[in-house]
Design brief:
29% helix, alpha+beta, 807 residues, five-stranded mixed beta sheet, homodimer
Chain lengths: 807, 807
């Protein structure tokens, strides 16, 4: 018999049917009686003082029910850290980027709301603006926030080991400057919210959020409501990727407008609003210096990071922090120094995005590693194997590595990609040149941050054996519902189709920090495992009483519940025992001791394999319905049992588990047009035990698509802070034709803390996509392009500079 | 200090504001994108075979999306007992009463749906109908159901003691025939439902139900869905009174139409549909024979009951069962015999209604008791005190009486009503005559029935100290949310405003049988108490750790949590200790032992009153948010720990607690017009500990209003099965001007099993309203009218028959 029944199965997503059929209800699909439509007034200026807002003409427009402005929420400001709360839902005194939210209206329909916006007059005093982070840091630059000298919104500074000593001991040192662009999160469902405030002082809000409990806290503070009166209900979420963790203007505005009008208010952003004023990934300038031994052994790295944060701080401090922490992974590196400045500019705000600051650092470091390998004449695979972090290691900044399949990932991906052959073979002739590149990645499996950290889960057994799983975790599109359902199913010995996963309802579901930091499978998954285990224990008691056994003897498997010592194979499809023996007719009520004795008498002391048990459904009926039957509610909670790392120094173990992976990309470059096509990719990933290999592969493919966009395609075209390409087509989000085939190798390890040994699988792969592609382009062309995205123009320019000569 | 902080307080209803403001959302208020409107085709014939249904013309009507008929649910039938499932949601082969549901349509709007109904052609073979239960039982009557000989749908037969011996030993015997009419439940919100079925095979349904979990089971069976895929969500409920326990045609039809169309479907009944085809209270003909000793001591009663059940069985067997069981309460009565026939007629179906069968029996028995008292020249108060059941009694049918304040209720109500004086004083002169009457009542506090019996509850602590209470119980308008919130608040030492009570969502809330049988306060209340206690224990552990004490030393009160040995009064309004002592500055972290030692050193061994504690909010933050903080989920379950009574014999203890009460009514009769006006009433009720006296009084007033309607006003005018007065005005539901002032005396006992000693308060009083009024009319006029309602016509006829002479 297999170790597990449900874990490790390629199970189609439980939310697949309703999403494929279009029945899934997203926030924008919802409506309530008497509902009003809200819209947001955005400023056309990148930097200006608000002198006066006159909404009287808007208020007089028939059909307009309310207008709200920043001061309607008092001086409420929010942000990631209590010390960096510099953002108000609607602008208070100044606007700081084009598209910043200034006012909101609620009207009887969308057209009226839009017309009302045009009738709001805002008197501004224009201020000089600054768009480049280096200019913003310069003496005399316009100051965007009064408190921020030289426009520095956040700093990070880390020193591990002795970097100067490291460089002294190095045989070879390189210094390179890498530049990344801001990119879109790329969710296809723009932000949307429906808020309904009633006169009992209760706010019910349906919002598209990865972390609904953040919104619950923010609205509680902003509106002065107890948390128990802020009911955040989660509809289906059309993607997040870090872009739906936070609360935004529309959330507060809808709540406030509903409170003011006494009617439900819906606000839905357009994709254009997301593209012009929405959050994005941090652009960074990374000056990276690395020293190695002659054999390629990494000795020291120092990095200076200027991150363009846009107009507000948001989670920026965490982004530059993580960026620095992951200078030390996935390679052994004893001496590390990191200095980062997150700088305000008059542009939209940069925040967390899949990998949160880590992809930028690993793009720089993994490309530089290839440069070093080239300098030293070492194969990129070899240099990575030499430096790869291993199980039992502790990094310079104290990340404790437990399960680790990195070396195997490198070997496997090289094999899967045909590395040896492709690296050796001619790169092509004529205008089309091919190359192959490699890079590695590592990520937390749920980061330990300050504040609320634990995930809760609850399992409710229905009297027919169905199971409701209540989790505070969010499936923002990544397949979490399916994976969590599998965990509950395995624990209870039922099928995944028996589990009904509920979306968050802050009134009813247990609290969870949300879907970020790759915490859902590992942390919420452990909570679900605990809750299902708790329910199982209660069921086992009822079963034990009926079957005259001890609760710990009761086994749950394949929808059967039986006394452990006598399992017999059960045919799930047929709902019957396989080849039932003659003893089947044995009355169930015979005490175990007596049954055993009889058997022993019959068989000369040798207990035959037989089963004393019942179906899970029968047990549920018994435990939940009949006689003294009661609701079986299992509860579980989980947080990594580690200390919070030191925020000031960056030292300390950030997670109880780390994922590892390696990725190869083969590219074909048209030297006449500069077009790069990713021909194929291969991914090997140590996600511990893959709970659902199909879901894991889906995550890899999504990661590659996003990484490919960042490497080659995506770019906001801004002119004086104004977005010139505010459509998905103009912005060039990758689409199906851009996607290469993906070969996947699961390098399964058994993580000691993850549920069933599972670790992160949804973010890590994106980290190595960019450097793998950049390294492959170098392999094809012999040029290094260190500024993303690598557009045809940059290719052609680099080729021109190289003078047509291969290095 | 008071024993309790929240229990016993007159707390306004927590759902008051949204109901008063009109914001409360009832099922009819809800809508979903793409929603269709459903309507039901009802038959105009009282009894007919369906030959054919042709819906093709309806289906062709533009805007019509689907038509369903009975066979679309296969042969699905439902009802209270597995053996009495004779009803299908839409008629299958026959129709059996005018208004029975034959088909349902879903269309883009209500008008189209109505027009479609007109286009459905049903070919019937008309059958002879029977409307009177006695005629229906007669030889040769039309047979309404094939299985039911003489149209008997259910029987009950009980024998306790030796009734023949009892009659032989009696000094005086009376035989009387009492007749009750069917009455409307009188909820102001007609039945409504919104169903949404999706392609993942999940049905979400918003339905106005007292017992949403019944619907959950019925829909699961009817549609072949697992229970975990039937999500019943409860909107606000606009009254139930027993009329919203069951599933009805609209529920199944909406679900089926949604499944068929792939779109949400809403069906809302009109008040006219409720009045013509809805459920109602059983009409009964009760032939009651009672024997007493000369001193008025009750010895024996036998009763024959012919109950008019209408066209289907529904919960009728339970109604006639309870009717018989309550022949033995609230008076001592050693010998009892009961024989009941529930008879099918071609009329709308009769079911449970407030008191479920008991008010009919007690009308007969408590009026007959007055007749006997009159016969023997005993005062009605005296004869009741003589026979009143007492604590420690066991009735002939084995109902075990624990807490019992009946005698005190009789005394108190007599006093409150001015009995002595009003009974003696002249009854008036001229055309207006006054009289005063008295009657008693008793009821279960949650009946122990077969099937699912336990209530579950869950308490979730929010990190700011707010509390979500998840209960499967239903507030159908009776104020349960407030009472359950009080229980949770008391248990956690917080205010009722800190508790947010959730309405049922079968996916998320624990299972509860529903709101019937006066089980909410006593049974669901105990579950809530257990769940809150469970949460408190978890919180106490966190508090104990912080306060260096044992969890059992931790006290919760007035939003403070402190070490039990040193409570100091706390000012709730000011959120501070009252007169904080100098020791306030004592650091909180000093271990208790050390603190005690220091104090003893300072005070010469005498420990001063002080407090080591924190606010509930601080504790919640500590336990739920900070560090290893996790969701605190308390769970609780409760069922009366008694055996299910014997269904065949009616013997066995039906509840673990019984309420008792007495009621006096003073009436004024206009002997010229026959109009009766209830001048005033007084109620004394032993509901154990009144958790919320204001809510209890509200229930008394509602009970009196309903009883008054049954006694004097309400009547369906039927002609050949057709309702001639299908409006609330024509039917004459009592309204505000009909209501007398109500004097209330709470006779509080401490029930050993009820939460905080509480018992039933919502149904019992209605039982004694009718006999109190009838007895008062007799006192005024000297005539006995034994057939309800006592209309002016009946008064005038009785006066005429008496020939103007007082007896």
């Amino acid at each position: 018999m297999e170790e597990y029944s449900v874990i490790g199965q390629r199970i189609p997503r439980v939310d697949g049917p309703i999403k494929a059929s279009g029945e899934a209800k997203y926030a924008a699909d919802l409506s309530l009686p008497g509902m009003l439509h809200g819209a947001i007034l955005r400023t056309p200026l990148p930097h200006a003082r608000i002198l006066q807002i006159d909404a009287s003409r808007a208020e007089r427009l028939p059909g307009v029910r309310a207008v709200v402005v920043g001061p309607d929420l008092g001086n409420f400001k929010y942000g990631f850290l209590p010390t960096t709360r510099d953002e108000s839902p609607l602008a208070l005194d100044k606007v700081r980027f084009i598209g910043e939210e200034v006012a909101a209206v609620a009207a009887i329909d969308e057209d009226t709301a839009q017309e009302a916006l045009e009738r709001i007059r805002v008197d501004y005093e224009e201020l000089p603006a600054v768009f480049d982070p280096l200019e913003a840091m310069a003496e005399g630059a316009p100051r965007i926030h009064d408190h921020a000298e030289r426009n520095v919104s956040a700093r990070a500074s880390m020193n591990f080991g002795d970097v100067e000593k490291g460089f002294r001991e190095s045989d070879h040192i390189r210094e390179d400057r890498f530049v990344t662009q801001p990119v879109l999160h790329g969710f296809l469902e723009p932000h949307a919210v429906l808020a309904s405030y009633d006169s009992s002082g209760k706010l019910t809000i349906w919002a598209s959020k990865q972390s609904p409990y953040f919104l619950y806290r923010n609205l509680s503070t902003a509106l002065g409501l107890p948390l128990s009166r802020v009911r955040v209900i989660q509809p289906c979420i059309g993607g997040g990727f870090g872009g739906k963790n936070e609360s935004f203007a529309l959330d507060f505005a809808a709540a406030l407008l509903s409170k003011k009008t006494g009617r439900p208010v819906k606000i839905v952003y357009s994709q254009e609003e997301v593209l012009t004023a929405g959050r994005r990934r941090h652009a960074m300038i990374l000056e990276l210096k690395t020293g190695v031994k002659r054999d390629g052994t990494l000795v020291a790295s120092s990095c200076r990071n200027i991150a363009d944060g846009g107009a507000y701080t948001s989670v920026g401090p965490l982004t530059i922090y993580l960026c620095g922490v992951f200078l030390t992974l996935p390679y052994r590196l004893p001496h590390v120094k990191y200095e980062a400045f997150r700088v305000y500019t008059n542009k939209p705000v940069c925040v967390a995005q899949r990998g949160n600051g880590i992809p930028q650092m690993r793009f720089a470091a993994d490309c530089q590693l290839d440069m070093i390998a080239q300098d030293l004449g070492i194969d990129p695979v070899e240099i990575r194997l030499k430096n790869a972090i291993r199980s039992g290691d502790r990094t310079a900044n104290d990340l404790a590595i437990t399960s680790c399949g990195l070396s195997k990932c490198i070997e496997k991906v090289a094999e899967a990609a045909g590395w040896e052959e492709k690296r050796r073979q001619p790169r092509g002739t004529g205008k089309l040149l091919r190359g192959i590149g490699l890079a590695c990645n590592s990520l937390v499996s749920g980061a330990r941050l300050r504040g609320h950290n634990s995930s809760g889960a609850m399992v409710k057994i229905h009297e027919d054996g169905g199971v409701s799983l209540l989790t505070g975790a969010t499936d923002s599109g990544q397949g979490a519902e399916t994976v969590l359902a599998q965990i509950a199913a395995e624990e209870l010995g039922v099928g995944v189709e028996d589990i009904q996963v509920s979306r968050v309802d802050s009134e009813l579901t247990p609290v969870d920090p949300g879907s970020y930091g790759s915490r859902v499978t590992s942390i919420a998954g452990n909570a679900v495992k605990a809750a299902a285990g708790d329910a199982r224990r209660q069921l086992a008691e009822a079963a034990a009483e009926r079957l005259d056994a001890l609760p710990e003897q009761i086994e749950f498997r394949n929808r059967r519940v039986y006394v452990k010592e006598s399992p017999r194979p059960f045919d799930l499809a047929q709902d019957r025992l396989i080849s039932p023996p003659a003893a089947e007719a044995e009355p169930k009520s015979i005490p175990m001791g007596e049954l055993k004795e009889r058997r022993e008498a019959q068989t000369g002391g040798k207990l035959q394999a037989t089963e004393r048990g019942m179906s899970f459904k029968q047990l549920a009926q018994l435990a939940c319905y009949a006689g003294s039957g009661k609701t079986i509610l299992g509860r579980g909670s989980y947080a990594h049992d580690i200390e919070v790392p030191n925020w000031e120094t960056g030292e300390g173990n950030l997670s109880a588990a780390y994922s590892f992976g390696a990725q190869a990309a083969e590219v074909e470059v048209d030297t006449e047009t500069g077009q790069v096509r990713v021909v194929s990719t291969a991914v090997a990933h140590d996600c511990g035990r893959a709970i659902n290999p199909m879901a894991v592969e889906g995550q890899f493919e999504g990661s590659i698509s996003a990484g490919l966009g960042q490497a080659l395609l995506e770019e906001f075209t801004l002119e004086e802070g104004s977005t010139l390409n505010p459509s998905l087509m103009g912005y060039h989000l990758p689409s199906a034709p851009d996607m290469p085939p993906v070969k996947t190798v699961l390098v399964e390890t058994h993580d000691p803390v993850g549920p069933y040994g599972a670790k992160e699988a949804g973010e890590g792969t994106q980290i190595s996509t960019v450097p793998a592609i950049v390294n492959a382009i170098n392999h094809a062309l012999g040029v290094w392009i260190k500024e993303l995205p690598i557009t045809p123009e940059k290719i052609l320019k680099a080729l021109e500079e190289r003078g047509g000569q291969r290095t």
